[in-house]
């Protein structure tokens, strides 16, 4: 007989790295805390989660539309939103070679020997 490992449904994906034992403990605690009200609490949590996701989606779509507006405005004025590959740092490099002569130390004087 082949055994199939028990997998956690995708619904519980928000619980992250909780194993089966931890989820059982959470379930027992939920039953002890909420008892008869557990279906109502679960419904309320589900509704709150749904509202949160909807609000997050609205914020993301508003952000994307605002950035799209800015990109369109920039493109309409003739600026490119992407950096062009034809220009390079050397085109804007204003570094010039030094014009002052290099310092050359004077030649060393020969040492006179004590015996000589």
TrEMBL record:
Keywords: Membrane, Protein transport, Translocation, Transmembrane, Transmembrane helix, Transport. One of its GO terms (cellular component) is membrane. One of its GO terms (biological process) is protein transport. It holds the Pfam family TatA_B_E. Residues 80-89 have a biased composition (Low complexity). The keyword Lyase does not apply. It is a single-pass membrane protein. The chain crosses the membrane at residues 6-34. Gene3D superfamilies: 1.20.5.3310. InterPro entries: TatA/B/E. Residues 66-116 are annotated as: Disordered. It is found in: Membrane. PANTHER family: SEC-INDEPENDENT PROTEIN TRANSLOCASE PROTEIN TATA (PTHR42982:SF1). This is Sec-independent protein translocase protein TatA. The lineage of its organism: Bacteria, Pseudomonadati, Planctomycetota, Planctomycetia, Pirellulales.
């Amino acid at each position: 007989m082949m055994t199939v490992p028990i997998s956690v449904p995708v619904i519980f994906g928000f619980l992250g790295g909780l194993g089966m034992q931890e989820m059982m403990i959470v379930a027992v605690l939920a039953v002890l805390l909420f008892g008869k009200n557990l279906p109502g609490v679960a419904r309320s949590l589900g509704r709150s989660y749904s509202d949160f996701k909807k609000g997050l989606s609205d914020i993301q779509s508003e952000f994307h539309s605002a950035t799209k507006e800015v990109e369109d405005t920039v493109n309409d004025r003739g600026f490119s939103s992407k950096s062009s590959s034809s220009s390079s740092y050397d085109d804007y490099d204003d570094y010039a070679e030094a014009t002052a002569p290099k310092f050359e130390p004077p030649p060393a004087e020969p040492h006179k020997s004590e015996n000589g």
